[in-house]
Each structure stands twice: as structure tokens, then as C-alpha cells.
Design brief:
Layout: E1 16-27, E2 50-62, E3 68-70, E4 79-80, E5 83-84
Antiparallel strand pairs: 1-2, 2-3, 4-5
């Protein structure tokens, strides 16, 4: 794996990750057997009838100091080889 070219502006650490978190609500129709129209004998949580995303967020995290940065805030702030990464 290549060494990271991105530097945390708080602690100068180079161990950065882009993270995506999402929350979902899973719905199962109630019927005469196991909950959910796709479950027949036993309930299997991955056989849902409907899934709705209720929340999601992306951020960049420094794994050295634990600081979270907005992905848009970091445009032009992350550094590589002592040069500022240009905004896209």
C-alpha cells in the first residue's frame, strides 16, 4: 500500500480515512408465518420487504488524533508533498 500523501492539519499525522455512515429503517410485512413476505419458516433479518435510508454522512477522519473533517472543508486543506491539494 502506498504511503498517504495527505497530512492532518491538526496533528500532522498521515493516517487519514474517508468514512461513510448510513442509517436505515427495515420494514417487514406481518403475515401468518415469520414476519416479512420473503420469510416463510424463520425470520431472517436480511429478507426485508422495504428499506429506507434515514440518515447518511461522509467525513474524513484522522486515525492518529481522531479529528473529523467535513469532506468539503478539506478541499484545498489536505497537503501532499508540502503542497496544498488544489480545489476541484
Amino acid at each position: 500500500m502506498n504511503k498517504s500523501k495527505y497530512i492532518c492539519p491538526i496533528c500532522n499525522g498521515s493516517n487519514m480515512e474517508l468514512k461513510h455512515e448510513a442509517s436505515y429503517v427495515y420494514s417487514y410485512l406481518l403475515d401468518s408465518d415469520a414476519p416479512g413476505s420473503k420469510n416463510s419458516d424463520i425470520f431472517l433479518s436480511y429478507l426485508y420487504d422495504r428499506r429506507e435510508q434515514t440518515e447518511s454522512k461522509e467525513y474524513i477522519q484522522c486515525n492518529q488524533c481522531g479529528t473529523h473533517f467535513s469532506t468539503t472543508f478539506m478541499n484545498g486543506v489536505l497537503e501532499g508533498d508540502n503542497e496544498t491539494v488544489p480545489k476541484e
